[in-house]
Amino acid sequence: MRAAQPLRRFIPPTCKHWYRWLTRPAYRYKDRELKRLRSLPRYHPTATRLLGEPLEVPDAASFLFMYREIFEQQIYRFEAGSQTPFIIDGGANIGLSIIYFKQLYPQSRVVAFEPDSSVFRALEGNIRRRGYGDVQLHRGALWSSEKALSFMAEGADGGRIAQAGDPENVVVQTVRLRDYLNRPVDLLKLDIEGAETEVITDCADLLRNVQNLFVEYHSFEEKPQTLREVIDCLADAGFRLHIHSINASPQPLLRRYVSLGMDMQLNIFAFRL
Q1: For 179-221, what is each residue's pLDDT tens digit?
Q2: What is the gyration radius of the CA atoms in the chain, in angstroms?
């Protein structure tokens, strides 16, 4: 005769949040900290321990958006062929993507670029405190050549090479991405606020060295859309694509949601079967 199994305590789904809050100190901290960050005004510098070591955060709203995408949705998750993948992070911001990559593959080698000087200072501090090896940080904007260009420093995650009408408040040095694509790349991440078409078309012939690619495509309201050029380059390089919309306009035939001059943003995931 089978022994009777102990009764398991049933916790209704609606009560699970409160159960975790009452029984797990880490969950209580996370819950309180997320509420605190949501309450902060835009561009109010702060710090958080949500990811363990102290993390400098220039803007809570952009941090929360990136935290949700990177650590909750895990949009950059990929399968590498070894434990030491080579990753290029274009638009590293304050380093959340690097922290995620190093958690996913602790022995990964990462080359990262961030042009905004104040954001780059936070990036340096956040990565230095974690003592990561094999991470190279470069202050510069990815482009199709090396030159000095006007840059709009937005103060959070929206800094970009200046477009017509932008306040051209600083000058940044650019870096040519194709100089880093002469070797196998396990993941290339490009979140470079409108420079992606310029960069991808310049290094189209070297994309064959990239195994996985993420690019955030930006469409500017007053400029021709270049999505076809990006897709053609990726398709010619042998990638298969999967596309997600960001901040989708529910009725785009009537009106488009516009943010920082952009009327559409897409996350494009390119991979090889």
Answers
A1: 999 999 999 999 998 999 999 999 999 999 999 999 999 999 8
A2: 21
The tokens for 250 are 């529910």
Tokens of 63: 């941090």
3-state secondary structure of 184: coil
CB 118 within 8 A of CB 154: no
- In angstroms, the CA 96 to CA 65 distance is 11
CB atoms within 10 A of CB 148: 10
Phi-psi region of 244 (alpha: psi -120 to 50; beta: other; left: phi over 0): beta
Please provide residue 12's backbone torsions phi and psi, each rounded to the nearest 5 degrees. Answer: -55, 145
Write 123-131 long-range contacts (CB < 8 A, 24+).
123/92, 123/93, 123/94, 123/95, 125/56, 126/53, 126/55, 126/56, 126/94, 126/95, 126/99, 127/95, 127/98, 127/99, 129/53, 129/54, 130/53, 130/99, 130/102
Q: Cα(89)–Cα(78) distance, rounded to whole angstroms?
A: 14
pTM of the entire predicted model: 0.89
CA distance 69 to 88: 18
Q: What's the rounded Cα separation, in Å, for the pair 219 and 124?
A: 30
| Pairwise CA distance, residues 63 & 57, whole Å | 7
